[in-house]
Structures are given as structure tokens and as C-alpha cells.
């Protein structure tokens, strides 16, 4: 919700907002008839207005968790609630609608449509949802919020990689979703541009009350979050409140060495 002010920049770990944006209850995912366990049943609660980092070594199940939580994949066990809606019980058409209207996505490859203008790319989720009134104005507000209000008519190819990622963030936020899922949003960016993108995500949480779940390998990116959870071999094995890069790095180092980490 644009303009709705929130409290301090960093919310204390464990503080629960009035209701939860995302709840995973025993969510697991296996492949090949159960032969490959990508995600053991995990529980996770993300209150509204929280910025969460999901971390872990390669193959630990981060993308699987994100895909199940975002309704892009159906878990083999457990339930996912987005703003109180059990998404597993939705028919495919309802799930598509929920994804379009209540969930925002930011990927490493920003997936903008090259033939559409920047403004049209941002307006796309609204138009796909059937909105007609005020679409251009809402897209303009979202673009201005990421500092690109003057680039509406440009094509994505005319923008730098970092600017394109900012457009992707505007597109993810234009529907004012319950949760934004970001999968390595800074993975392809230089440190200064990554800083800009993380500033925008942090601002979306603090200024506008959005909820962001971000998969990242980067301890410095995780340090922008209110909390970091760590996966190893398909299980959540640790969590850090108010993570700083050094502590995140320490946990990652231990996980890389295959040691069990006690939740901090
Ligand atoms: N479609 C699939 N079929 C079989 N196994 C899969 C499939 N998708 C993922 N896996 C397995 O599930 C495990 C978790 O994969 P996932 O992609 O979630 O890990 P990740 O932590 O996101 O890794 P990375 O950081 O390398 O992207 C891996 O062992 C992977 O090989």
C-alpha cells in the first residue's frame, strides 16, 4: 500500500504483525515418486511487513521452497497460506489469479517483455487481471517509486541491467501484492547496482508495508533483511534475526563444511 508508513527500519526478530503474509505448514517436495527429497516438511511463518532472506548451499532446496510458497509448484506435503488463503485448495484458474494479484515476482533474469515499453511492462499484471481504470497512472506511480518515472516510453533494451531490475521491482509491486518473492534479484548486478535494488526492496517493506521473501547466496544482501533462514539438505537448520554479513557468512561457512548449525 503506497504511502502507508511503518515503524523502524529493522523489525525485531520474532515480532508478529497482526496477521501473517505467508505461512508454510509442513511443506515438503519430493521428486521421482519420493526418491528425491528436495524439501523435507518445513514450517515457516512470515509476518506482514517483513523482509526475509532464504539462504543455503547450492542444492539445499531454496528454489524448491520459493516455488512451493509462491504457488508455482505444488508441494507433495503440507499447506501454504498466503494472507490466510490455503493455496493448495485453489483450482488452477484461482491459483493463477492469486499469483497475478497477490504475489509479486522478481527474478535474477528480470523477464521483461522486450516488445513492450517500460510503462506497459509495469502495467502488464494489472491488465492481465482485467483492470482498465487508472492502469497507466498506477504504473506511473510504481515506476516513479523506483526512480524511473521518466523512462515510461523506453524499451527495456534501452535500460541498463540495474534499471531493468528496478522496472521488474515496479512490476512486482504494482498490484500491491501480499508477498513479493525475489530469487537472486542481485545475482547479476555489480555491488553498487545491487545496493540500489536492495534499497528499493527495503523501502517497499519499510515505507509501503510489503512483505519480501528473497533467495540469495550473498551475505551482504541478507544483511538488508529482518531475518535470514538457512536451508541445508532440504531442511531449515538455522535462523538469524537482524542478520549482519559477518554472522551470515559464518553460518554459510559452517553449512559449507557440512556441520550442523544450531538455530541462532
Ligand atoms: N525437477 C526435479 N527433479 C528432480 N530433482 C530435483 C528437481 N528440482 C530440484 N531437484 C533437486 O532438489 C534439490 C533442491 O534443489 P533446489 O533447486 O531447490 O536447490 P537450491 O538451493 O535452490 O540450489 P541453487 O542454489 O543451486 O539454485 C536438489 O538436489 C535438486 O537436484
Automatic annotation (TrEMBL):
<dbReference type="InterPro" id="IPR003593">
    <property type="entry name" value="AAA+_ATPase"/>
</dbReference>
<dbReference type="InterPro" id="IPR017871">
    <property type="entry name" value="ABC_transporter-like_CS"/>
</dbReference>
<dbReference type="InterPro" id="IPR003439">
    <property type="entry name" value="ABC_transporter-like_ATP-bd"/>
</dbReference>
<feature type="domain" description="ABC transporter">
    <location>
        <begin position="22"/>
        <end position="258"/>
    </location>
</feature>
<dbReference type="InterPro" id="IPR017911">
    <property type="entry name" value="MacB-like_ATP-bd"/>
</dbReference>
<dbReference type="GO" id="GO:0016887">
    <property type="term" value="F:ATP hydrolysis activity"/>
</dbReference>
<dbReference type="InterPro" id="IPR027417">
    <property type="entry name" value="P-loop_NTPase"/>
</dbReference>
<keyword id="KW-0813">Transport</keyword>
<dbReference type="GO" id="GO:0022857">
    <property type="term" value="F:transmembrane transporter activity"/>
</dbReference>
<dbReference type="InterPro" id="IPR015854">
    <property type="entry name" value="ABC_transpr_LolD-like"/>
</dbReference>
<dbReference type="GO" id="GO:0005524">
    <property type="term" value="F:ATP binding"/>
</dbReference>
<dbReference type="GO" id="GO:0005886">
    <property type="term" value="C:plasma membrane"/>
</dbReference>
<protein>
    <submittedName>
        <fullName>ABC transporter ATP-binding protein</fullName>
    </submittedName>
</protein>
<dbReference type="Pfam" id="PF00005">
    <property type="entry name" value="ABC_tran"/>
</dbReference>
<keyword id="KW-0067">ATP-binding</keyword>
<dbReference type="GO" id="GO:0098796">
    <property type="term" value="C:membrane protein complex"/>
</dbReference>
<keyword id="KW-0547">Nucleotide-binding</keyword>
